[in-house]
C-alpha cells in the first residue's frame, strides 16, 4: 500500500492528511514534502490528520517528532487528530502524547490550538 499526502493551508496553519502507510518506505518523501511546505509557506502551526492512516512504524514517528521540533522552534504549535486505534497505540507507547495534544477531528484540533478566528 502507498501513502497519499493531502496538504491544505488555513491562514498560518498547515493541515496535513495522511492516507495509507507511513513507514520506512514513505517517511523520507513525507519528511521532504512537509519540510518544504513549512519552510516555503508562512506556516506557524501544524495539524496532522491521521484519519486514513492504516499503518505507521518508527520511521513515521520520526517524521512526526521532527516536524513537531521544527514547528516548536518557530514558536508554533502542533496537534494530531482522527487517530485510528492501531496508530494511537503506537503513539501512546512512544510517549508522544506527553508533548503533543491529540484531538477528535480537524475542527477541534484547530480550536484546541487556538488558531481559529
UniProtKB/TrEMBL annotation:
Is the Protein biosynthesis keyword given for this protein? no
Q: Name one Pfam family in it.
A: STAS
Query: What molecular function terms (GO) are annotated for this protein?
Result: anti-sigma factor antagonist activity; antisigma factor binding
Q: Name one GO biological process term.
A: sporulation resulting in formation of a cellular spore
Q: Which UniProt keywords apply?
A: Phosphoprotein, Sporulation
Q: Which PROSITE patterns match?
A: STAS (PS50801)
Domain annotation STAS: ranges: 3-113
CDD domains reported for this sequence: STAS_anti-anti-sigma_factors
Q: What role does it play?
A: In the phosphorylated form it could act as an anti-anti-sigma factor that counteracts SpoIIAB and thus releases sigma f from inhibition.
Family the entry assigns = Belongs to the anti-sigma-factor antagonist family.
**Can you say what this protein is called?**
Anti-sigma F factor antagonist
